[in-house]
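Question:
Now give any protein.
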Amino acid sequence: MHRKKECITIIGGGLAGCEAAWQVAQQGVPVCLYEMKPQRFSAAHDNGDLAELVCSNSLRAAKIDSAVGLLKEEMRRLGSLIMAAADATAIPAGAALAVDRGLFAAWVTEKIEQHPAIMVERQEQTLLPQADSRNPLILAVGPLATMEITGALAELTGSEHLAFYDAIAPIVAAESLDMQVVYRKSRWVEDAPGDYLNCPLNREQYQRLVAELLSAEKVPLRSFEETCYFEGCLPIEVMAERGPDTLRFGPLKPIGLAHPGSGERFYAVVQLRAENTTGSAYNLVGFQTKLTYTEQKRIFSMIPGLEQAEFLRLGSIHRNTFVNAPAVLQEDLSLRRAPNVYVAGQLAGVEGYVESAAAGLLAGIHASRKVLGLPFSPPPAVSAHAALMRHLLHSSPAHFQPSNINFSLFPPLAGRISKKQRAALRAEAALAATDCWRQDLAG
């Protein structure tokens, strides 16, 4: 592979790769962007354009009173190519930002191919090029990376830090739980408050939950996703299919979880585990699922204590390649073992179109500053970009799972204020700080 002096190589022409290329090129640093299409297509792709949207055409909530809406607005202010493309090709979608997927991909492709600092090479890369501080490498190969590339990445990170299948349980906001029903207790621990929150079920409630799981609508598997679930992370509905008592002898086991106040014992118990150090979000232990989002909200809201739950993330199980970010990444998204190799997009451990592009934006900024000899400059702590990085860098490596952006990843706000007020305060602080950061980046 021949590269120019002081050139950044990017492998992968999806949302993250294109965003990273744009950010680098806008700094005047040459980019060589490698995309294997149309030479080779993944099982999910069929369009030769860059930045192909393979699932939904929605980039989710548009307003800045949502975490993803705020992230999008920060990206606009930072000169995001992907947000410019989305705004240029938007179609009516109520409170969401949706795009014409064909026009969107064509728009991005034209901008990338016409940029004088970007050279697009339409060929597959099976080996990772050598990288140094003047010629960094950004990996943005996406969740369906080829085995050749993932094998090379495994050599850099250690195979134990690379996942190929993603099992995600829903996350709920702590403040939305009914603490008159939910109680705190760890299994068998009697003399301490406990690390888990527990939702108790009687026989009737448990049987209704199982019945609903068995009859619920599920997301169909795509052609490249085989039903090769790991026994340790089976979908909750698959466990329910194995027998009426499977769940109460598995993740809903009530043994050791008698109520600490009344001593009452329950037929089954759903446990919630803290998702962050502030305790603002909890995941439903063992509730990874292929149920549709609508069915998840309906059925999981039947669990005692979750009737009014706010779901910050819904569950899923799908093929996904990603690194164990808190174990292998540095603050600038480079690898600890190879500091001139950056990881962007879903490969870094984020979920969603917008989050993937945001990770590409950050990788592009950080890599170009390294080439230009400028100091590392992280996004401001109150911003949505920093919240996303906080998840990647400061989650527990033992329990790390990809995540969408949500307000539980932001620094907590003091005082008792309404949800609407919290969103407004966070947006005001984040956008003001992002404007200052943009000015600092410009020098």
The longest helix spans residues 419-442.
